[in-house]
Amino acid sequence: MAALTAFVLNGPNLNLLGTREPDIYGNDTLGDIEAATLKKAEALGITVDFRQTNGEGALVDWVQEAGAKADGLILNPGAYTHTSIALLDALSAIAIPKIELHLSNIHGREEFRRDSVTARAATGVIMGLGGAGYPLAIEALHALMTRGTGA
Ligand code: DQA
Description:
The protein is of the alpha/beta class. It has one domain: Rossmann fold, CATH 3.40.50. The protein is about 35% helix and about 20% strand. Strand 3, helix 4 and strand 4 form a beta-alpha-beta unit. About 35% of the residues are buried. The structure holds 1,3,4-trihydroxy-5-OXO-cyclohexanecarboxylic acid. The site of 1,3,4-trihydroxy-5-OXO-cyclohexanecarboxylic acid has 10 residues, from loops.
């Protein structure tokens, strides 16, 4: 079997991790999180394309690209989680396993963060575990990609 590939996509302001509201998002930078994600992926034989953008359109393009090229997707849409029907439509259009990820527990935060528009199209959601959620999402995605089931 060819090596499994996964896209890990990060939305707006996640480039600021490390200095951005560390009491909510922790002290890890996105680079730290990428390193931990790639380490776990390598151990499981998954090739990861790890990206961040502040643009909604770029995220839509990358979700479409993941649907064409990858075996699975992990997506932290940032604030677009709560607003983006365009992202929901893109996620609904692709047939690979999709895990939505949040560093914080959005259900314990402000009212406007408690609904995820995009999670309607997710296979599963991981949240509230900080940067540690990313390697866990890789494990769960591996299970979905190889066994067609959750972790
Ligand atoms: C976030 C939660 C969102 O509400 C917020 O806008 C973010 C980060 C998280 O990872 O906890 O940018 O997606």
